Every structure is written in structure tokens, then in C-alpha cells.
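$ run holo --ligand "succinic acid" --emit C-alpha cells
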Amino acid sequence: MTCKITPLSDHTGAEARGVDLSRPVDAETRQRLNRAFVESSVLVIRGQSLTASQLLGGVQLFGDVFQQHNSRFALPECPQIHYLSNQDRYQDGSRYIPGAGYHTDHSNDAAPPKATVLLAINLPDKGGDTQYVNMHRAYEDLPDETKRRIDGLEAVHVYQSKFSARKLMDLPADRKDKVPVSVLHPLVRTHPETKRKSLYLNPIRIEGVAGMPESEALGLLDELLEHATQEKYQYRHRWQPGDLVMWDNRCLLHKANGDYDHSQTRYMYRVMLKGDAPF
Ligand code: SIN
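-- output --
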């Protein structure tokens, strides 16, 4: 079967059919998939039925595996693959919905992951979509005056911003001193492969803007986030059984929706791929 790739919206997302990542993939298909990922920012590979170790093998068509920060979600049989589940709870007993609220993954790392990959293992009957916003488009539409204002600014990223509306799960004791404490990244970054600029925001992890008073920084970040998350920049992924979805953390924000019946399990495998220091 040959691989067929089609766009999912006019700015973000492409789906590939006719690929089985549990089997060897030829060089031409690998190149087409990588190009589709870079050009579309979200690549959906339909119809995948993979064990964790097959997933680990398959994603290496796109890059090297990045070690995710919170090892409490690592699968014992394949620790580079983590899981996401709506059946986990915080210590106070409330339900934990991983990924709720727009963010980009692990931006507190000096070299954050270029991509995150989710493989649907169990889906609710309806709901639980993942929403993306295209930060290239959002940046390109900013007024010139705003572009000048933010040019050269750097944001402070931490594991969990004190301003985050969402609480992350605590790190296990043996990981606390291994996760970067704080790092500066440009508010406007350049995609290393396409050279397009994008806004690089993360309300879960950004705690301020270097050299800017806190109230001014929070106002600016809110203004940029409100602009970037408008519906016109969105691609909303409605999951189908067998979907493997990989997205480009360098130029997208994403969020999970907790808008479904929580007596049903939403369970995914998650793996990330190494990226470069943003510039
Ligand atoms: C995530 O933020 O990595 C999870 C997204 C999702 O579960 O849809």
C-alpha cells in the first residue's frame, strides 16, 4: 500500500494513510512523512496498532527520543514511552486531566522537544479532542508595532509557573534535581527548518519576561495569548481509533479537552523527540 498524505485544514495538519509503523518504512516514505510534519506542524498517521516498543521504533523515523521530565508516567516495560490517562488523580483526590490549557511541551528545558507524539490506545465515545493553534500565523498577523515591541524579548520558563492556571503533577523525588530550574527563551523564535518566525508562549511555564516589571510582562503575555488562541489559528483534532498524532512544539500551542464522560477512559501513549535551543 502506498502512503497517501492529505491536508486537514488550510494552515495546520495533514493525515497520512497507508503507513504501518510496526514495519520497516522505505526512505522515500520517510522523507515524505518528515516533510509533511515540518510543513503541516501536525501529522496524523491513521490506523496504527502498536506496542510501546513498536511506537518507540516507529517515531525514530522522525528524530531521537527526548527524556520526558516526569518519570511517574513512564511505562515500566518501556520507560521512554509515557502514558496519559484521565484516570489519574491528584493527591487531594481530584481528577487530573493531563494537558488541559494551552501550552507547548517541556519549554523549561534548554533544548525543548521538537515534537510530541501521542498514540490513541483508548478513547471516549465522544469529546477529548486536542486543539492546536498555529503560532506562525499568529505571529505573522501581529501589528508591526507589536512585532517591534517583542523583538529581542526573552521569557523566563520554569517547571511550573506560579501564574499557571493548571497544576502539574509533582516530580518524583529522584527527578527534582534533574529538571532544569529556569531557562530563558526568545518570545519570538525562528523555526530551524523552515526559518519562519512564531510566537513562543507557554502560560503553564512562563513566569516573566527578562528585564520587564511583572505586571507589564503579565499584561503583554495575556495580550499575546488572547491573540494567538483565536479560532482562526486553530486546528482541532477529533481522535479516531488507531490515530498516531505528532505535532511541532516549536510553532504550535496545544491543549487537551476534558469535555467528555470521565467514566470512560482516555488513555494514550506519549513520546517526545529532541529539539534544539530556540533562537
Ligand atoms: C498533552 O498536552 O501532551 C496532551 C494532549 C492531549 O491529551 O490531547
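-- notes --
The chain has a mean pLDDT of 96.
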